[in-house]
Amino acid sequence: MKSRNTSQQNPDSEDKYTVLLPTYNERENLPLIVWLLVKYFGESGYNYEIIVIDDGSPDGTLEMAEQLQRIYGEDKIVLRPRPTKLGLGTAYIHGIKHATGNFIFIMDADLSHHPKFIPEFIKKQKEGDYDLVSGTRYRGNGGVYGWDLRRKLISRGANFLTQVLLRPNASDLTGSFRLYKKKVLESLIERCVSKGYVFQMEIIIRARQLKYTIGEVPISFVDRVYGESKLGGTEIVSFAKGLLILFATT
Prior knowledge:
The chain is an alpha/beta fold. It has helices spanning about 5-10, 30-45, 60-70, 90-100, 120-130, 150-165, 180-190, 200-210, 235-250, and strands spanning about 15-25, 45-55, 75-80, 105, 130-135, 145, 180, 215-220, 220.
């Protein structure tokens, strides 16, 4: 096998990619997701940093992040913890303030999103100079693995209702594996009012309103191996309310 040529892999060497990793009780998953991120960014030759935003996890996630920082270096692993759980949207706002990249990846820290897709996101973004690129489980060879029927019905139902009511011109509204131009994400978050499960959907709707361009990359979503899902009845009710509010106001 021929060795990779970094200069060919990365013609736009001025670009830097910041990965925002909000965490809560992800001690078991964090070492592997960080290792995979380092591996795939390293092989692709792109400049990157990983910002871990831990919300006071009681399981020692922050202590694990500190160990990873000592292994990979403070320039690659940036720790920006918060004292308590304050919500996904505010975690992104907090992380962006410290991001030095001109592109932002958001993804889950629970291994549901495999970093092997990162080079495909970057390639897709550059092909169309897209403002954001969203991972989709519902187009091409994308898929979901490890979910029970209830979770599949919730996700499919949420996407179907959103497509019917809001027509967002994107196939996966509730996914959270995306690549943004930093300025675009800042602009979108300023306009978003939702929290939790509905937040990802609102970002896509706001992007459509502002006429930002959206590309899609098929991804395989795998249910978490360690820890418990944070999707519960409260999040489902919140999603339904958020969907109705967006339908009435957009």
